[in-house]
Specification:
single chain; alpha/beta
């Protein structure tokens, strides 16, 4: 009762990074609320699930292990999660803002008639005073996300409906091991009472998953370009510098929309969130949508012709100049 639940996405028996990030954040929130952290694991061959996630501070894992439940399908997974929530009555339920989370969470929220905040970039616990009725709500989940096209940061709360539900973007929370020796409890959930054959009306004959060739999340160095790079041709300079530094090339949404590079390289609110050791921002103005995806980089270098560009306010070093000229010199001297 009143604990924190995290839905774990699992592929081939491996828990997704976004779920581990949520478990890390969930442990922090659970400590703040003095409650338990519980995980939902639905897949096949989950005998070693505890080895993967107990160390993140998980007190209870609700396990549904069956070949029919892998890979993910909307109907059976949503029915199981809904029933678990009805039985256990958590106060907070978190999902990753992935293709699965964005499919599953709305089904669950609709069935339970509760609110759902999508694509959160931060979660906190706090109080709220409702002056109209002279009432103070304690220990609410602050669901924080960019709003109005990223022009403001909104804090959203659910006053009465429970559970408080949110999806959280991959990479915005840090994956932190709570205790390598932490041991919780595994509870097998009897899902067969609520699942019927028609829930498996869709039969998956074959799955082909193409692995991404671009790995921005793990890159120690990212050379990112914005609209100010000027052209697709100029983006080649970013690739040259990234190759020399052993890094990857990223981009702002403006650069992607202009056709300078592919969408897989987009960093920011509608792209990926990264935390490299070095982030070189080339011709990026640095609107809040982009900063949300890279502001936790260890060192940020901004190269821009505009000395008043917003990106400069969070940069450790600022180089005022033409991107192509500066990059050409950097490539020459790093070589």
């Amino acid at each position: 009762m009143n604990n924190i639940f995290v839905y774990c996405e699992i592929e081939d028996g491996i828990v997704a990074d976004v779920s581990l990030e949520l478990l890390s954040k969930g442990r922090e929130l659970a400590n703040r609320l003095d409650c338990k952290l519980e995980a939902i694991a639905i897949d096949y061959k989950l005998s070693k699930i505890g080895e993967q996630i107990f160390k993140y501070g998980v007190d209870v894992i609700h396990v549904c292990d069956n070949s029919k439940l892998s890979p993910y399908q909307t109907l059976p997974h949503s029915k199981i999660v809904i029933e678990l929530i009805k039985q256990e009555k958590p106060q907070i339920v978190l999902f990753g803002a992935t293709s699965i989370g964005r499919d599953l969470a709305p089904h669950v929220a609709s069935a339970l008639k509760v609110g759902l905040t999508a694509d959160c970039t931060s979660l906190e616990i706090g109080d709220h005073e409702e002056k109209k009725i002279n009432k103070t709500y304690k220990n609410l989940l602050y669901q924080i996300r960019p709003a109005f096209g990223g022009n403001i940061i909104a804090t959203i709360i659910n006053l009465e409906a429970r559970p408080q539900m949110a999806t959280v973007r991959e990479g915005v929370m840090k994956k932190i091991v709570f205790d390598d020796n932490y041991k919780g409890e595994i509870k097998l959930f009897d899902f067969k009472k609520i699942i019927v054959d028609t829930d498996f009306a869709v039969k998956i004959i074959d799955r082909v998953i193409e692995k991404s060739k671009i790995n921005l999340k793990s890159a120690p160095v990212i050379v990112a370009g914005g609209y100010g790079v000027g052209s697709k041709e100029n983006f080649k300079l970013l690739h040259q510098l990234a190759d020399i530094l052993g890094g990857e090339v990223g981009a702002s949404r403006a650069a992607v929309d202009a056709g300078y590079t592919e969408h897989e390289r987009q960093i920011g609110q509608t792209g990926v969130t990264v935390r490299p050791k070095l982030y070189i921002a080339c011709g990026i103005s640095g609107q809040v949508q982009h900063r949300a995806g890279m502001q936790d980089s260890s060192i940020i270098i901004s190269i821009n012709t505009d000395e008043n560009a917003p990106i400069n306010s969070i940069a450790d070093y600022v180089i005022i100049g033409d991107v192509s000229e500066v990059l050409t010199k950097m490539i020459k001297y790093y070589k």
